[in-house]
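Study this fold:
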Amino acid sequence: MIRVTISYLKSRQHSAVEQFDLNYYIKSHMPMMASLCHEHGCCRWEVDAPSEQAGSAPFHAVGYLYFNDINEALAAIKSTAAQAMEDVPNYTNVHPRIMFSQVHS
């Protein structure tokens, strides 16, 4: 299983200039990405949203897309990158960081 992790790291000062609409990310952006990536084998998606009760978190949010193999993941990201980046300004001005990883359990 391959996991594509998309993280939105807060700056050290977490300035008021940073904006992140978590509701849009969860209800619009990630379902759109899962739908676009489905034809390339995306089998699941998740979002980690910081718990306010736990105090300050280092991330605005972290999204995950799951694939059966690395070729599916790379093909999906390559074919959807333009659409994904066009949607980013609808929910944040923070640049996403992406990591591909092998999931072990």
Summary: The helical segments are 22-38, 70-87. DSSP finds two helices and four strands in the chain. The longest helix spans residues 70-87.
